[in-house]
Amino acid sequence: MINLAQKDITHTLGKFLVTAMGVGMLLGIVLIMIGVYRGMMVDAEILLNDINADLWIVQEDTLGPFAEASRVHEDLKDTLRAFEGIDKSEALTFQNLQLPGETKPIRVTAVGFDVFGKINPINPERLTAGKPLTKEHYQIVVSEETGYKVDDTLKLGRDIYRVVGVTRDTVSSGGDLLVYLSLKDAQNLQFLYSNARIRSDRARGILENKEMKMANAIVATVKPGYVIDNVANKIKKWKHESVYTRTEQKAILTKNLIERSSKQIGLFTAILVVVSTIIIALIIYTMTLEKMKEISIMKLIGIPNSMIIKMIVQETLILGVLAFIFGNIFSHLISDNFPKRIVLEIPDAWMLFGVVIVASILSSFVGVAKVIHADPAAAIGG
Question: Which of 54, 78, 199, 375 could make a disulfide contact with 222, Cβ separation 3.0–4.6 Å?
Answer without folding.
Answer: 54
